[in-house]
Amino acid sequence: MTATTTVAEGAPRREQGGGHHGGRPAPDPWRSRLCRWDLRYSPYAFVAPFFLFFTVFGLFPLLYTGWASLHRIELTSPGRTEWVGLHNYARLLGNEFFWNALRNTATIGVLSTVPQLLMALGLAHLLHYRLRAATFWRVALLTPYATSVAAATLVFVLLYGRDYGMVNWALRGVGIGPVDWQSGTWSSQIAVSSIVIWRWTGYNALIYLAAMRAVPDDLYEAAALDGASRARQFRHVTLPALRPTVLFTVVVSTIGATQLFGEPLLFGGAGGQKGGASRQFQTLGLYLYEQGWFNFHLGRACAVAWSMFLILLLIAAVNALLARRLRQDR
Amino acid sequence: MTATVPARRRPGLARAGRQLHAGPFAYAVLALFTAGSLFPLVWTAVAASRDDTRLARTPPPLWFGGNLPANLARAWGEAGMGLALANTVLVAGTIALGTVLFCTVAGFAFAKLRFRFRGALLLLTVGTMMVPPQLSVVPLFMVIARLGWTDHLQAVVLPTLVSAFGVFFMRQFLVEALPGELVEAARMDGASSWRLVWHVVFPVARPAMAVLGMLSFVQAWNDFFWPVVALTQENPTVQVALTGLGRGYVPDQAVIMAGALLGTLPLLLAFTFFGKQIVGGIMRGAVKG
């Protein structure tokens, strides 16, 4: 360590002297130059591979989608593009199936997100207690997250079967007639939502739990000293501390709901891209897929994608506004 | 965490939120939700051990039958799950490796090195973290169609080889875990940046790298939209093969359930062994995210 530092310090002086004196090794100009280059350029080299892939497969397609949405592009000849301006968007806005998909995405989004986050909050509260086998409960509640959309949906299709499904069998036990989980509008949307809820509740519970564990203990102790009951502690200490996390999960779940795809696709069986016989659970994601890969209109699929993007931007803006309001309140 | 000796607390603090032991009610509710979480998975196995005619009768079967090996064999061969599993191991493994490697060095640069546009680049990365992949599906498809990559595994590996989340995750970890003095000291020793990464950054980052690797593997294994668009039943991943099953490729419910079981089992095994680490990773990502 000392040797290298002295060489580095000695370098300019010896340059002044012009020659190599004494027994010390000559400073290698290449070496020091390499070292300087290394210092200056290696950070770029470190981020380069990431940004290479990120630009080619992330940013470029994202922006190109917007550009392509202004063109007629058919799946049969994806190389040929024809400028059509806002035509694709005009077609969308005049298409009842688009509005239907938008409505379905919104209702399924609410049906899946609200109960999921509320249950996750309650579960996190329970997991926050001192528990025996704490790890077991956490891992067990997270197993649905390990199950893929496809595997989960295939099982739920069977469970929700109208004639032989377990759900209807159990419902019959309590005197509720067979529900047609496939073709009813509400019933099918509830069924699709339940798959989302099943897969993501445990995950969100863990996120809330992490936030709860980050709340300093003395806040609770102070509240307890003030005589606050457990329920009041939850309301007045835990919930306010959790606000940013709740907002975060709301945003993430909303994004997930906006792009919902796999669950309704597989719930619909063979013609899944339609989201049921009367499109009762066709989401925007499915509509995009149908436009692009079943009707061969890639340009119009891009317009659907870009509409989803605009919706997300809107949600992000509302969220930012809310976050600022919350911060001002404090 | 387990086997905690209840500390003697001052009586006034007995009701402070976090020290409380769970009561029977808490355990009952947790048990209920755990049962709900596990039931569909267990029932997948039950259904996979029956045959198609039994599944088309009420009441539905509640216990295992004897057809599991036969159904698994049909799912493995006829439904293409064997090929799909091999493909998915390859795809998810490559993606996990690439994500860990590229995101760790990039995360290190963002955490500890100074360079131009650092702030802007980080903002760009984080800003696009939440953009859903469906937004870029059409151009990606046009590109791989032109390259003739449809049905080739690189079509699903390359677009997900790095992740913005990974960079952010590693940066957050290294900002705190890697002391600046350690970097300085290595520099003083004349270590080049690459040696620095190999001998200092990687050892420090190892726990976070392991977690990121597992999370990326799970995500890649379960990735749905893009593989369904880019691949067909000729050369599927697990999710593509399962989609084929769901669309009536093999019209036998017991075989379909056997396929779902085969496609989920590897991840469930991983969860039994590394569940604690995966849970820890998700929770750590949450606090810092």
Automatic annotation (TrEMBL), chain A:
Signal sequence range: none
GO cellular component: plasma membrane
GO term, biological process aspect, one: transmembrane transport
Record-annotated membrane-spanning stretches: 41-64, 106-127, 139-161, 190-211, 241-261, 303-322
InterPro entries: ABC_transporter_permease, MetI-like, MetI-like_sf
Compartments where located: Cell membrane
Membrane topology annotation: Multi-pass membrane protein
Pfam families (alphabetical): BPD_transp_1
Domain of life: Bacteria
Region (Disordered): 1-26
Ranges of residues in domain ABC transmembrane type-1: 102-319
Alphabetic keyword roster: Cell membrane, Membrane, Transmembrane, Transmembrane helix, Transport
Family, per entry: Belongs to the binding-protein-dependent transport system permease family.
Protein name: Cellobiose transport system permease protein
TrEMBL record, chain B:
Membrane-spanning ranges: 25-46, 84-109, 121-144, 156-175, 196-218, 254-274
Keyword Transport annotated: yes
ABC transmembrane type-1 domain segment(s): 85-274
Keyword RNA-binding appears in the UniProt entry: no
One Gene Ontology term from the biological process aspect of the record: transmembrane transport
Primary localization: membrane
Pfam family, one: BPD_transp_1
Keyword line: Cell membrane, Membrane, Transmembrane, Transmembrane helix, Transport
Subcellular localization(s) per the UniProt record: Cell membrane
Annotated membrane topology: Multi-pass membrane protein
One Gene Ontology term, aspect cellular component: plasma membrane
Family recorded in the similarity comment: Belongs to the binding-protein-dependent transport system permease family.
Name of the protein described by the UniProt record: Cellobiose transport system permease protein
Organism: Streptomyces olivoverticillatus
